[in-house]
Amino acid sequence: MTAERELRAQLDALTTEAFRPELAEIDRLPTLEIAGLMNGEDASVPAAVAARLPQIADAIDAASLRMADGGRLVYAGAGTAGRLGVLDASECPPTFNTAPGDVVGLLAGGADAFATPVEGAEDRPELAAADLDALKLTAADTVVGVSASGRTPYAVGAVRHARAVGALTIGLACNADSALARAADHGIEIVTGPELLTGSTRLKAGTAQKLVLNMISTITMIRLGKTYGNLMVDVRASNAKLHARSRRILALATDADDAAIEAALAASSGEVKPALLMLLTGSDAEAAARLLTEAGGRLRTALDATRG
Description:
about 300 residues, alpha/beta, 15 helices, globular
């Protein structure tokens, strides 16, 4: 069997690639009816994710432990899956004030592939190994391979290379019994079924991947103490909206007036977490910084120390 025929046979076996004859006349339907069909398809995704919550939680707990010890979270994928990883990684610094390089998105073909696909890049597992080597991957890190099909060579190659290094590995796919999930320490298979447009896995599969990546990054950051309740107290105020959000977070958490909030932010150089500790405990900036350092940046731990 030629390589092309073998690939076609692999695709024929994937539920995400299955043809749906009942939709063969979709291009003849009114726009509102097509929109309704798409909306109905999307509504099935949360249930598919819910069916894998135990596996998702186990993977997050393992990744959180690695990050708490100084490890990094690295996403690796191609096409839509890779772009979703890059998107999730890029949102962590402003949302959770993560240091540069703490959360990384690797896309087959490099940064240029975000806008323009690089032909053949997803078919080369050695590129994934080289990209991870360029990061100086260690056993402290976590690598999440993302692939709707679960067979993309770049994503599978990333997980296999990371596991050989000793890093924690997570494989996120949208087909059952996938090579990606089998290669990883933690396999997560969100089976979303055939797409509205045959093989267009940026649809339901992409939505499922986005939901799971949201969980991985958000809950990991909660476990790392990057939040106080459901408030983003490690937000990095890099624009006008985030400056306003910082003040709103302090008001919601403390009921302090505007003058007190401005004074606390001025004393903490605009950092929300120490400002919040100052407002809640009456401590000065130096004491708040020391308490947070001793608590490993965890606000609740610092608060417990002041009460103890």
